[in-house]
Amino acid sequence: MINLIKAEQYKLLHSRCFWGMTFGSSLLSSILLLDSRQLTANLFYAALYNTPILYFLTIVFAAVFVGEDFGNRTINSLICAGHSRSTVFFIKGIIYEIGSILILSVSLLVYGIYEMITGALPPIQFLQDCIMAFFSIIAMCSLPLLCSFVFKDIGRTLAVPMVLFFVSIFILNNDQAGTIATILPMGQLRLISLQALSVSNFTMIIIDILWVAILSVLTYAAFRRTDLK
Amino acid sequence: MNTIILEAQALTKAYKQTLALDHIDLKIEKGKIYGFIGQNGAGKTTFLRLVTGLAFPSNGTLSLWGKSTPSQLQEQRKRIGCMIETPALFPNLTAYQNMEVQRIQRGIPDRAIIEKCLHMVNLPDTGKKLVRNFSLGMRQRLGIAIALLNTPELLILDEPINGLDPAGIVEIRKLLKSLNKEYGMTILISSHILEELYQTASDFILIDKGKIIEEISDRELNERCKRHIAIKVKNSERALLVLEEELHTEQLQLMPDGVIRLYDHLDDIDTVAEVLSQAHLLVTGLSLSGDTLEDYFLSKVGGSSHD
Q1: Do B146 and A77 make contact, defined as CB atoms within 8 angstroms?
Q2: Domains in chain B, CATH or no CATH each
Q3: Distances in Å between the alpha carbon of B120 and those of A77, A214, B8, B94, B146?
Q4: Cβ contacts of B64 on chain A, cutoff 8 Å
Q5: The whole model's pTM is what?
């Protein structure tokens, strides 16, 4: 398992696509601040407000990091080398989630630390919101992971979550968005940024854990006994 | 008795409406080079995918080095190197980086093995060129290098010479033979180029419509195909004696037309020529004759090849 973690880490760190997306995400987030700054209390929340929009980058990342591995049959080489499917799924999932968190959170951390230094954001508040955002991002990114393991290619791994991404944005613009936003991780991030959560932090984290658990079980079920090309 | 490293018993793989493998019984012995021959859709790749864990059998048992439970099979697969259908490569990494990822995931401590394997397949100096810019032949070589990374006890290659130029094909053949000789590596190769397979393998497995139709050694094949070296020489009778004496064989025959048929040393036509030359015999013709492996295979499956 350790060898697999090291190999996936090596691959992630040598992926130009990952670094490009991390840089692009930070750049896009900064540009989007021009809009969201007026709606939120400070730069950290303004950056958090834009995180759901940047979700599409992690969808692309799932297609490239996992979907492409199926397409190139490089996941197959891990199975042929004697790694169990559960290990491959677990490590692939963990490294993808870490990559996605990094892509989405660099600007959050930069603006959060800046606001802490200037005194506009209390450290405890920052830490608390970071933890909440962390769980929401993990839950949000579990969907592209599921699609990559189900479809085992780049195209559909990209297309299906992208459609769901736009559907979610449409739903969140609805009149009853408040209730739905509490359930959807994308909506939760918006609620945290507007400091308008209607449920406790604990409840929100439980909802996210449930999302991750359900999606992970489905993902593993799709991979466990499937024949690979 | 030879060690059995792979054994399939009534191994069956069924897809929705197709029976890809139909109760396959097969034993692979240590230290041999097996040629896996069959038409498209005969079940070659399906069998290799079952062996490497990419697919699951519908029925029957598979054992590797005598172990057959799923967890044991998984553990034994660490002793296998393989390339199934196409090389599994990361297109946005260099050849070295591709090898490095595979080295790390296999837990091989020695980095020098990468250079060694790249040298073996004659792909040492690709520098920072990304794999996506490689030719088909270069990808194939890199795929073989990756399969060799763990110095496997069983090497499985599915169509390894696809895309290789004639010189590349000869290099790979020599490499496989030397790996088999030096390391006692057991090799299972599937290929459509039967003439090439004939020159590489020591045993042949013929598969058709999901069933093994024959397992045959190269010696048996040569006998059945009456493969021989046809030698035309000025003084046939003296040549016969020279060959018998120098090659230590009685597997030869003088035909009524004066042609000598040598049924031995089929892989070593150069030596035969050298022996005759050293005896100052004027050779006017020296060629490999008889049915080819392709002819034999087609006579067995009873139809024309799809390929």
Answers
A1: yes
A2: 4-217 (3.40.50.300), 228-289 (3.30.70)
A3: 20, 47, 32, 17, 11
A4: none
A5: 0.82
